[in-house]
Amino acid sequence: MTNRICPYDAWQRLLEGNERFVSGDSKHPNQNASRRSELVHSQNPFAVIFGCADSRLAAEIIFDVGLGDVFVVRTAGHVIDDAVLGSLEYGVSVLHVPLIVVLGHDNCSAVTAAKDAVETGDVPQGHIRDLVERITPSVLSSLREHKTDINDMVVEHAKQTVRRLLDSSRMIYDAVDNYSTAVIGVAYRLEEGRAQLVSTSGVL
């Protein structure tokens, strides 16, 4: 089974769900027993959401969707690695999902850690260091444009992540190139609850 909606329709569906969430009118769709039964043998999500692992950024809640609606991949600071690329490529090539959403958010701790490391030269220990190093190019890009606010850096990091996905995966690049998939960057505001489009690659 393949998706029959276009990238634009997929984004509109997410936007409509986010509007319900913002206004306090969430419907919590596709979360009942019959939906569970319907999905036992197959799934047909209409979007992939690659988001930050922050506990305040639960994709199904902020976009008011349910079981089987979105294929979700999360890492701190939506940092890309081989497992992430493999998961996103699965979404595109096997599930035929028409939209990949890179979901960042204001006051992101991972981006803040990278900003602090650039400014102080003090790099975290353990595997957190790897996260920081992968986010650092986005911080440096912001600083080159004289944008020092953490939330400007969050937006820049979402944009950079979209570009890196296309640079890192031929499969995703080809899906965008042949108009079957679009990749977008979205910045989420924690207090307001609103998701805002900040970057588009492909036809939306």
Task: Provide an overview of this structure.
- This protein has 204 residues and is α/β, with parallel strands linked by helices.
- Helices cover 47% and strands 16% of the residues.
- It is built from eight helices and five strands, in the order ααβαβαβααααββ.
- It has a five-stranded mixed sheet, with helices on both faces.
- Strand 4 and strand 5 form a beta hairpin.
- Helix 6 crosses helix 7 and helix 7 crosses helix 8.
- It is globular.
- The mean pLDDT is 94.
Instruction: Please report the total strand number as a whole number.
Output: 5
Stretches with pLDDT under 50, minimum 5 residues: none
Average pLDDT confidence is 94
What is the straight-line distance between the termini? 22 Å
Question: From the helix content, strand content and strand pairing, which structural class follows?
Answer: alpha/beta
Shape: globular
Provide the succession of SSEs.
HHEHEHEHHHHEE
- The percentage of residues in β strands lies in 15-25%
> How many helices?
8
Strand order of the largest sheet: 2-1-3-4-5
Main pleated sheet = 5 strands, mixed
Helix content: 40-55%
Cα-atom radius of gyration: 17 Å
